Please model this.
Amino acid sequence: MTNLVPFWSVEPGYGRSGLDRLIDELWQGFGSPVARAERAASFTPRMDVEETEDAIRITAELPGLEDKDFEVSLEGDVLSIKGERREERKQERKGFYHAERLAGSFRRALRLPFEPAPEALEASYKNGVLTVTVPKPEEKSRVQAIPVTTA
Model:
C-alpha cells in the first residue's frame, strides 16, 4: 500500500497559497472580461539588450502593433519606447454576439552607458519586433602624458 500525498504538499513551502497560485496560473487565460482588460492595459513589452564590440542593440517585442502605435526617443543617455496598445475582438454566432475593446499605454526606458548622438541611432520594425541599434562612440585614449616641471 502506498502513502498518497496531496500534490500541493510535495514541495516544501508549496502549501495552500502555492495551490492558489497554481490554480491562478492555470486559469489565467479564462478570466473575466475585466481581468483580461486589466492584463491588456498593463502591457509591458519584453526587451532584450545585447552589447557587441561596436554597438548596443535593443530589441522589443511589440506584437499586434503598427509603427504608428509607438515612438522611440532619446533624451540624453535615456532611450525610451512608448506607445499605446489597442485591441478589439468580436465574436458572432447564431444568437450570440460579444465585443471587447481593450486599450492601454506603455513606456519602457533604458539608461545607456554613454550619451549617443541621436542621428547615429538606427531603428527598424518588422513582424512585431522593434530593433534599435546604438553605435558606441569611438574610444579616446585615456592615457595622456602630463609634463612635469622642476623647481
Q: What stands out?
A: The first strand starts at residue 47 and ends at 51. Residues 47 and 60 are 4 Å apart (CA to CA). The beta strands are 47-51, 55-61, 70-75, 78-93, 96-111, 122-126, 129-135.
